[in-house]
């Protein structure tokens, strides 16, 4: 089975966001595999262990993204592709176009990715890539079974469970609960250093920057306003209710 994982390198979720001159500062920041993409890597390795085949991890990003791909290789992926051509960086539209070109180049039976990126909060990557490739897409998977070309997915739907049956080729996005990602072992880390990692650019993929030009533009970035201290009301319940209504009407102005 030819298994492809698309992953993004993101800020460590414990990092404090600092904005300087309208840009998010990366000084001293730790980067990790997007947590939802880590579930995708683990599931791909489990599929390989069950059905055989090969796992290819793909990312689009700057040179530092190699460390995320090496981590995936240390977990058990077989090879990696990094598109580090800055002319191909952009929004979700751009990235889907570029990932589709890579997927067509390396081939695939199944593609797995995270259901959203924790830095942007966007869940567009998987659906857009599936649309580009003209294949089925099932989101927020919490259980995945493959039998021949048949695929059965249990997916999270706002706390409930939905079962979807489809067939290969398909793109699946991973939700928390799909598995428990393994830690890279020391031998795995050593082996990862020698596993193949190809770097591709626009010429390698046969696309131009104009073809994948971003459809959106970031015009400003700001931090959310600081939370104000809360108030604890006291007294009889009826008095508290009356005071709460007055506060909501006169101070918060929400009613």
Automatic annotation (TrEMBL):
- Primary role: The electron transfer flavoprotein serves as a specific electron acceptor for other dehydrogenases. It transfers the electrons to the main respiratory chain via ETF-ubiquinone oxidoreductase (ETF dehydrogenase).
Q: What cofactors are annotated for this protein? A: AMP
Q: What is this protein called?
A: Electron transfer flavoprotein subunit beta
What range(s) does the Electron transfer flavoprotein alpha/beta-subunit N-terminal domain occupy? Answer: 21-209
PANTHER family given in the database record:
ELECTRON TRANSFER FLAVOPROTEIN BETA-SUBUNIT (PTHR21294), ELECTRON TRANSFER FLAVOPROTEIN SUBUNIT BETA (PTHR21294:SF8)
Q: Does the keyword Transport apply?
A: yes
Subunit structure and binding partners: Heterodimer of an alpha and a beta subunit.
Q: Which residues form a coiled coil?
A: none
| Pfam families named among the record's database cross-references | ETF (PF01012)
Q: Which Gene3D superfamilies match?
A: HUPs
Gene Ontology cellular-component annotations: cytosol
Write out the entry's keywords from A to Z.
Electron transport, Transport
UniProt family annotation:
Belongs to the ETF beta-subunit/FixA family.
Keyword Electron transport part of the UniProt annotation: yes
Signal peptide (residue range): none
Would you kindly state one Gene Ontology biological process term found in this protein's UniProt entry?
A: carboxylic acid catabolic process
GO MF, one example: electron transfer activity
């Amino acid at each position: 089975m030819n298994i492809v994982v698309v992953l993004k390198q993101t800020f460590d979720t414990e990092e404090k966001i600092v904005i300087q001159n309208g840009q998010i500062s990366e000084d001293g920041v730790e980067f990790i595999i997007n947590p939802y993409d880590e579930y995708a890597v683990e599931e791909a390795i489990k599929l390989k262990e069950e059905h055989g085949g090969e796992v290819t991890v793909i990312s689009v990003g700057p040179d530092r993204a190699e460390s995320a791909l090496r981590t995936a290789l240390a977990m058990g992926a077989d090879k990696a592709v990094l598109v580090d051509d800055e002319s191909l960086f952009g929004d979700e539209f751009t990235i889907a176009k570029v990932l589709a070109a890579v997927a067509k180049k390396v081939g695939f039976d199944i593609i797995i990715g995270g259901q959203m990126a924790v830095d942007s909060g966007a869940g567009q990557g998987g659906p857009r890539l599936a649309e580009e490739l003209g294949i089925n897409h099932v989101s927020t998977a919490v259980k995945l079974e493959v039998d021949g070309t048949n695929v059965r997915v249990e997916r999270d739907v706002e706390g409930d469970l939905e079962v979807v049956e489809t067939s290969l080729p398909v793109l699946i996005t991973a939700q928390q609960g799909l598995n428990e990602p393994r830690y890279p072992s020391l031998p795995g880390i050593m082996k990862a250093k020698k596993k193949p990692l190809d770097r591709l650019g626009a010429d390698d993929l046969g696309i131009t920057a104009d073809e994948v030009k971003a459809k959106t533009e970031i015009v400003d970035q700001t931090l959310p306003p600081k939370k104000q201290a809360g108030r604890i009301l006291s007294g009889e319940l009826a008095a508290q209710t009356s005071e709460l209504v007055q506060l909501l009407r006169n101070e918060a102005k929400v009613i």
